[in-house]
Amino acid sequence: MRKALENISNQLGLPLAAPDIDPSTQDDAYLMIGGILWGPGNPELEKQLNQLATAKAEDKPEHIHHLGAIADSRVEGVLRWALTTSSDPGVRGAAAFELAQSTSTDSHTALVKALSDQDEMVRDQARTAIEQIGGFKMEPLLRTAMHSPNDNEAMEAGDLLERAFGLQVEPDFWTRFTSK
Prior knowledge:
The protein is mainly alpha-helical. It has helices at residues 2-12, 43-54, 60-68, 75-85, 89-98, 105-113, 120-133, 135-145, 151-164, 175-178, and strands at 16-17, 29-32, 35-38. The chain is built from 10 helices and 3 strands; from the N terminus they run H-E-E-E-H-H-H-H-H-H-H-H-H.
């Protein structure tokens, strides 16, 4: 069921508010203006998804923050969707900020990818969120990102490991960036 809902979500360009694990007994899915909700209804989540979809561009980051305040595990997927798909840097930055409380590897990976966002504010929010999540959880992803072909992502990952978390990075790693 998840794959079908993800395909519909992608085709419609709407977020999928779904639990991290597939509850085989949850067959209820709701298509709304603001997204697809899988599982039991949550009036506040439904309201915020619809408001996000219909809000003026300048108000959308505020709605992302309202979404982040909802105690529903399905919110994390919506925030991840906003971080990875929105063309609005304000929305991406707000989503990165809210994902500082994230628990899933998918969200942590999205934050690492956001280190190479074209917008400086989004990169700053991603760095801050990664710092709040902590080196213990983020070190493996950051070490992998150090090998990214994207220089910005690699350099930010190495910098976070050294400066934010006090972890050692091989000295020859930095020559990749000084030789250009």
